[in-house]
Amino acid sequence: MAWYPGAEKMELEPESDEQPAITPTQVIFHSVAAPWTPRRIYEYWRDSTNLESHFGVGYDGSVGQYIGTQTRADANMRANRRADGTGAVSVESASDDQSTDPWTDAQINAFVALGVWLHQRHGIPLRICGEWDEPGFGVHRMFPEWSDGGTACPGDIRARQFRDVVMPGIVAAAGGAPLPPPGGGSGPARYRVTINGLEYGYGAHGPQVEEVGQALVRQGFGGHYQSGPDQDWRDADTLNYQDFQRSLGYSGSDADGVPGEASLRRLLGRLPSAQRVSLAHVVAAARTDPEAEQGHQTYGGEVRIVEQALADEGFLEQRWVDGSLGTRTVQAYAAFQRSLGYAGEDANGIPGRRSLQVLGQRRGFDVTD
Ligand SMILES: [Zn+2]
C-alpha cells in the first residue's frame, strides 16, 4: 500500500483494510460537486456513503489521501478493480455545486505533482486513456464503464482543462514526450513527415505541397482553403487532406491530415520524388550527345539519374553511367523500351514521356516537361 508524501493521510476505515488489492494502471479525475476541503471530503466518505476516492484536492491545492493506491477505492464503477486485478486511482476535487467552475491554479499544480508521483511510483503511462481499460490518465466522463449510466463529471470546463493544461503539465513535469490526445480536440495536427525525400505536413514547403493541394481541389477536398493552394503547407492543407483520408475510410490517427505513403499514392496516382528529370532535357541530350565528341554532356545531372536507373534495371553497365547520353545509353534505353512492349520508332532509344515515367516510378525520380 502506497501513500503519497505530498498528501495528508486520513485513512478511511474499514475500507482501507478490507477492500481488495489492485495494481493501479489508471488515474481518473473527478469533481465532488461541493466546495469542500480534503478533510470534509474524508468525513463525507466516512459518514455518508459507501463510495470513496483515493485522494481529495481542495481549492487551495491541499491534498488528502484516504486509501492506499494499491487498494481498491469505489469511485469509478468497473474501473475500480478489473478481473485482472488492475484498477484506477481516483482523485476528487472541490468544485461548485454543479461542477461548472474551472479548477484553480493551485488544484492544477497539485494534480501535476500527484500525476508525476503516480507515474513514477506505479508506472502509469503519460497519456490519455484511449479505452476504458487502457492504462493512462482520464476524467470520469470519458467512458460509460467508469460510471453508473454516464456522468458529466468533472464538468465541461474541467474536461477541457484536463486535456489542455493538466495532462500536458504532467507530461512536461515528468520529462516525457507529449502525445497527441486521441480523437483530436486540440486543433489540426502540426508535424511533418518525409516521403520519398520530400516533406509534407504543417510547415513543409515546395512544389510537392502545391501539387497535393491542387489534387485535393480537383477531387473535391478543397473546402478549407481561403486562399491557395500554394507551396506552403498550412492548417487548411491538413484539414483538406484529413477530409480526403476519411473519404478513404481512415479514422483516428490514420486520418489526422498528415499524408502517409498509401494515401498520397491514392491521391496523386504516384509518389513524388525529390529527384526531378526534365523530359525535354534528356530528349535534347539524346539528340546531341551521340553525335558529339566522346563524353559530351547535355544536362549531365539529369542524364546521370536516368543512366543510373537504367543500370539499376540491368540495361546499362555501371561504367557507362557518366552523364553523357551517348550511343550506349541510347541502346540501353531502346532495350528498356522494348522490355515495356514498345517496338519500331517507339523503341528508338529516345526517351518518351510514358517510358520515362515508368522508369522514374521504379527508380525514384519525377518527370517534368
Ligand atoms: Zn466523478
Q: What fraction of residues sit in β-strands?
A: 5-15%
What is the typical, i.e. mean, pLDDT? 91
SS element count, helices: 11
Low-confidence stretches: 180-185
Could you estimate the helical fraction of the residues in percent? 25-40%
Rg computed from alpha carbons, rounded to a whole number of angstroms: 31 Å
Computed structural class: alpha/beta
Q: In sequence order, what are the helices and strands, one letter per element?
A: EHEHEEEHEHEEHHHEHHHHE
Main sheet, how many strands, which sense, barrel?
A: 6 strands, mixed
Distinct bound molecules: zinc ion
Number of strands: 10
Head-to-tail CA distance between termini: 72 Å
Can you tell me the overall shape? elongated
Across the major sheet, the strand order is 1-4-3-5-2-6
How would you characterize this protein structure?
A hairpin with a 5-residue loop joins β3 and β4. The chain has 369 residues and is of the alpha/beta class. The strands form 3 sheets. The protein has a 6-stranded mixed sheet with strand order 1-4-3-5-2-6. It has a two-stranded antiparallel sheet with strand order 7-8. It has 11 helices and 10 strands. Zinc ion binds next to loops.
Task: Detail the topology: elements first, then pairings.
Blueprint (H helix, E strand, L loop, with lengths): L7 E2 L5 H4 L4 E7 L8 H11 L6 E3 L5 E3 L20 E8 L11 H18 L13 E4 L16 H18 L18 E4 L2 E4 L5 H12 L16 H13 L13 H8 L7 E3 H10 L11 H13 L14 H13 L13 H11 L2 E3 L1
Parallel strand pairs: 1-4, 2-5, 2-6, 3-5, 9-10
Antiparallel strand pairs: 3-4, 7-8
Bound molecules: zinc ion.
